Sequence to fold (325 residues):
Amino acid sequence: MAVRGCVTLLFILLSGIVYADVLVTSSIPAASTPSKHTSAVTTPLPTTHHNTTNSTTEAPTTPHHNTTNSTTEAPTTPHHNTTNSTTEAPTTPHHNTTNSTTEAPTTAHTNATTAPTPPPTSSPVPNPTVGNYNVKSDNDTVCLLAKMGLQFSFKMSENASFQTLNLDPSPNVTEVNGTCGSGGSDSSLVLKSDEITVHLVFTNVSQKFRLHALMLSVNLTNGNVFNASNNNLSLWEASVGSSYMCKKEQSYNITDKLTINTFELQVQPFAVQNNKFNTAHECSMDDTSLLIPIIVGAALAGLIFIVVIAYVIGRRRTFVGYQTL
Fold:
């Protein structure tokens, strides 16, 4: 019993010593712990160190994560906006500049091309239609025959340009009137349309007739009226009882403001028989039947003359050579 009591007492004493040691170790952290202590003494120290480590690890981790997120998102958002703004701004001006540059030169080039272009000129007036006209006497006998196409070129003033008109011989357009000449009186032919009125007067002198007067009146579309006349002409001359003919185009200056062109002209103002033209006196332009033979004959005669002269000269030289020998 005494021994058991001593052991118990000893155990209590050791426990008190250990407990006292633990108290001393926890109150003084800087003090080194003897390596001879048991595991009961070492266990409380790592537990306290583990708690401290966790606290230290979590504190820097959380600020570091927040700092990284704020730094990453802040540049990303401004950078994205800046990129969009930069891309759209140059694109829109560049498109507008291209359109204005393309259209502006095109308009300028068109205007530059149109400006020097001269105004379109009027197409040339075609040859007039040839009409057949006649004047009858009181007993319904034809006393004047005419066949011609008439074209008039005139100008209103000295500085104006010439205008050209054709006389339409259609019966529903042009009205034919005139007078028959006999016993030394004149014959006349009047052709009248809504636009043109022309009056031709033929005289008979010494059994030869000629056109000695022409009057023209033209009603213009602007309301003006052109008038011209010449009473001292000597055209289309031939013998009474025959006709005057000139099939080719001829131009006659009636006044300084009026020119008349005739096409396929044939007139007989006196002594018409059987309602048809008598033998025609052709104008010099049509009378080419003898002109060509005359030219050819003259050329052949000249050639023959040259050959004869050359032959004579050659014979003389030969004869002089024989006398020398």
Remarks:
- The mean pLDDT is 73.
